[in-house]
Specification:
447 residues, alpha/beta, 4-stranded mixed sheet, 39% helix, 14% strand
Length: 447
């Protein structure tokens, strides 16, 4: 009863102050195309007007915006921060490395040391190269596959970054030549027949099958190994894009969890706790083609010392503090608690938390009463008022302690009651009428 009274009062909570965020955004759009460096960080992904646009600092699992509002955060730098913000050991490693100069004229011993550690962790990593971003790593993987096979076409499943070779399959393909667009075709996850059709339609032309190992839905009926077998049957390489799953699903990546060894794979995000570093790894026979005199993958910043130092320190903590089992355990507690609150508020037809405990996702279900993006926008609005930065996915980190999980569920307890009240309100249960900001929009309407 006490919670009900509290929630009733919160129905009329004032919006948080985000004036500084909005003012700075108005300047940004005059200087920066799209106003942001990453669509996923931009205000189209949050309810603009009631959610923060700019953050100024983070510590542990909490962030502070430029209007001095503090939030529990589960976005964690688009999955890149697995230990928590400003983790002292990582900050110290970065500082120490920077004091000795960064990106020296010649190579640094950390390149070999970190490469050896990663090779020991990742089953498929007989050899590896460092890159800076996920997009760069998967582009390198595709280049290697084309060199090995002498073919051009790629079969893809999932999201693989912004470079020309891939983004041509999306609606955001302006500027990509038609000749490149024709080289990439998509198949459907857990539908092996869709990949079989691509091989039938592109006989002896596909260089590689590249895919994310999983997202929300698990691979069914040994799907990953079947994709690998099909690729090999037709003379193509099998590539796993583990930019998100690596070091989060398992220390050795999702490939270890699902017992599949790809020919080539890519890792990023979590390997350096927020510092820019990614890798392309693979079997020696394939990676060695980069030694060919006519092959070229090179980057001024690939061996940059500060990020390698952060990676070394991050891997050490992941191993010593058993980070992966912990984030799975805490994520499971979050999922169970959230879904219990959903059932208690009779909202199962509207939403549910699904996926893997290391990265749960709230899905909003199609229904006659209101739309998924309206529901998400309303959730973001009400969560922001209560100090939770809600993105839809939950990139669990070591900093999401049991206390943080409990605080999160307390916020959701209030928000879901408000959500239920909004559905039953005087306006006919139309949440759109209760929105104080703009409706969020997807980066891709289709991919």
């Amino acid at each position: 009863m006490a919670i009900g009274k509290k929630v009733r009062k919160n129905l009329f909570m004032k919006r948080i102050k985000v004036d500084n965020s909005i003012s700075l955004w108005e300047k940004a759009v005059q200087l920066i195309p799209c106003g942001t460096q990453s669509f996923s960080k931009g205000p189209t992904q949050f309810s603009f007007g009631v959610s923060p646009v700019y953050l100024k600092k983070g510590n542990g699992a909490k962030v502070t915006d430029i209007d001095d509002n503090e939030y529990i955060d589960y976005g964690m730098g688009l999955h890149s921060v697995i230990l928590g913000y400003a983790r002292p050991e990582i900050t110290n490693a970065i500082t120490e490395a920077a004091q000795n100069g960064n990106n020296l004229t010649l190579m640094h011993p950390l390149e070999v040391e970190v490469a050896q550690t990663l090779s020991n962790w990742i089953s498929s990593a007989e050899m590896l190269r460092f890159t800076k971003t996920g997009s760069e790593a998967v582009s390198a993987a595709v280049r290697i596959a084309r060199i090995v096979t002498g073919r051009d076409r790629i079969a893809t499943c999932g999201y693989h970054g912004w470079h020309d070779w891939f983004i041509g399959v999306s609606e955001r393909c302006s500027g990509v030549p038609d000749s490149i667009k024709k080289l990439v075709q998509s198949f459907s996850y857990n539908q092996i027949e869709s990949l079989e059709k691509l091989f039938t339609d592109n006989k002896d032309k596909i260089a590689a099958v590249i895919m994310e190992p999983c997202g929300v839905v698990p691979p069914n009926d040994d799907f990953l190994n079947k994709c690998k077998q099909l690729a090999h049957k037709h003379g193509a390489l099998f590539i796993l894009d583990e930019i998100i799953t690596g070091m989060r699903w398992h220390e050795g990546g999702a490939q270890k969890l699902f017992n599949v060894i790809p020919d080539i794979s890519t890792f990023g995000k979590s390997i350096a706790n927020g510092m820019p570093l990614s890798i392309v790894v693979g079997k020696k026979e394939y990676m060695e083609v980069l030694n060919n005199p006519d092959a070229f993958i090179s980057s001024s910043f690939a061996g940059e010392i500060v990020s390698l130092a952060a990676c070394k320190a991050t891997l050490k903590i992941i191993k010593e503090e058993k980070v992966v089992p912990l984030i799975w355990e805490r994520g499971e507690n979050l999922m169970k608690g959230f879904n219990k609150l959903v059932r208690n508020n009779d909202l199962i037809e509207f939403m549910e938390m699904v996926g893997y405990p290391c990265r749960p996702v709230v899905i909003f279900k199609e229904n006659k009463q209101t739309g998924p993006l309206i529901m998400k926008s309303y959730m973001q609005q009400e969560c922001a008022k209560r100090g939770l930065l809600f993105t839809g996915y939950f990139a669990m980190s070591l900093a999401h302690t049991n206390e943080i999980i409990a605080s999160t569920l307390n916020i959701f307890e209030e928000v879901l009651k408000v959500f239920r009240s909004g559905l039953s309100g005087k306006e006919g249960g139309n949440l759109k009428n209760l929105l104080e900001g703009e409706i969020v929009s997807p980066v891709f309407r289709k991919l």
